[in-house]
């Protein structure tokens, strides 16, 4: 479970977890200048409480407003939350390197929607989504450049590409040309055929060219990092989208031939059973599927798209053409599946796919084009002014060295540490600042990559501009600053709770036992009974099973005897459940007279035989039997003790006027 989820579960989920909020007044507003709370020496303003309180709510709508009790409960939760954050700060948890690393990761994610880059991405996102509505089929010929290619080499490769295009347009077989000339290693097997693909599966120059062609067209030479491509578009059709399937699973034990044989026989019997007109998929699934998470819902699985499930399963699932059609058994690492196609739908809406498309574009080569636009806007917005002479001099030194140490020596010998490289927001940025930046990232320096010393100046300019934008957001975007504080406090809350409550309760075995002993009356078994429940697959099996069980008493080995007598020849004859049960709440045992040794009943159209064994009277659960519940309760106990201690240690003041303002906004009349 992620830290983010845990602390949201503890606090923010109580107040709501949607990013949508009602408008919040700026803290600089005169009306908001008085703190809502003071904890110790820290002022906490109403806008922070409102930021959390208004998640998933629009207080303009009366039905979203709270009743007085809910308001008081939420305010109490907020106070407890801020008390724990204050304690974490006083313990120095916000100074730990682990906290700083984690907070930086969160901040990097949180800031993304507010950046200039985000707005520039929207056009690319929409274009990519529109292309994803189709899949195209293409072949290509790749001509690469020789190592250390000269300008003449580049021109020669381009002319060869033009020549091959002309031959193809004149009637030459394109795939034969690919076999003979393409330098794509796969061409010897596929003759240049790339099969079907959609947006974001090829480099963007290739994708732009392919989607811009009509079927049968051949492109001009297209330059990518791989070389020059000539592309022939062979087909385009709608994206098959997603499918919804159900499955029946028979598990196997890896490396166990006996398990494999039994599973294969059982899944074969199930498949045969499903071919019969009277068979109902849902009943067969509930009876025999070994996927406990789906068997009671007809084996239904979530929507899946290409690439979202294991290949063996995906290949068969997407090959089913008719809704309601059932596949033969298919083997995967989990066992044997029988798959039924339930529904088909096109690709999800843009809103549903936006986040995943954005993530892929950020990793795509087209992100560099977006970044160049971002840099231009940042330079204009934050008053970037460069010292061209100093920049050229420093870049020359960087190009001539391959190590940070050597570059530092060159800087010292040239006495240029204080030279101004550029200005951002009227602040001089010097060579010394560049050295600090390079020192901080030295562990990431790798010669030959973008992180090489030679590229340090470009990265430094980008870093400085991004830092200026981040400062701008923190100072002027209230929504972002509140969200950032929320996540920062959430990490501290988790750290404190993990140390003072969760891990303490998990590791304190003596405390667990003492808590159990003091609260033993909370951990009780109701009356239990030993039982074996045999549920028939079909009524035709009832007589033989009844005859076998007549006059038999419940014994531990009876289930094994039943399996050896019947299931070896017919694995679908019945299923068995055996154990010690609290019978009063049991879905089957609660329906029989518990004093009798043998019962035959029918539930939901299925016959069951029940053998009752020894009855165990109500008694306290042993610690080992309820340890998980004890630890959970012990954690809640430690949390209460922690809050009591914090309320005793910190002076809490509430400004009643500020509280009243929020009350009037949030509470029903």
What does this structure look like?
Helices cover 48% and strands 17% of the residues. The chain has 5 domains: 1-90 and 503-518 and 627-669, no CATH class; 134-238, Roll (Chitinase A, domain 3), CATH 3.10.50.40; 242-345, Chitinase A, domain 3 (Roll), CATH 3.10.50.40; 382-474, no CATH class; 524-620, Chitinase A, domain 3 (Roll), CATH 3.10.50. The radius of gyration is 34 Å and the shape is flat. The strands form 6 sheets. Strands 4-3-6-5 form a 4-stranded antiparallel beta sheet, sandwiched between helices. The longest helix is centred in the last third of the chain and has 30 residues, at 478-507. A hairpin with a 2-residue loop joins strand 1 (37-39) and strand 2.
Q: Features of this protein?
A:
5 domains, four-stranded antiparallel β-sheet, 24 helices, alpha+beta, Chitinase A, domain 3, 17% strand
Strand content: 15-25%
**Helix percentage range:** 40-55%
The largest pleated sheet is described as:
4 strands, antiparallel
Instruction: Give the strand order, joined by hyphens, for the main sheet.
Output: 4-3-6-5
The class by helix and strand makeup works out as: alpha+beta
User: What separation lies between the terminal Cα atoms?
Assistant: 40 Å
Overall 3D form: flat
* Global mean pLDDT: 89
Number of domains: 5
Detail the poorly predicted runs: 1-32, 445-449
Count of DSSP strands: 19
Continuous helix count: 24
**Radius of gyration, taken over Cα atoms and rounded to an integer in Å:** 34 Å
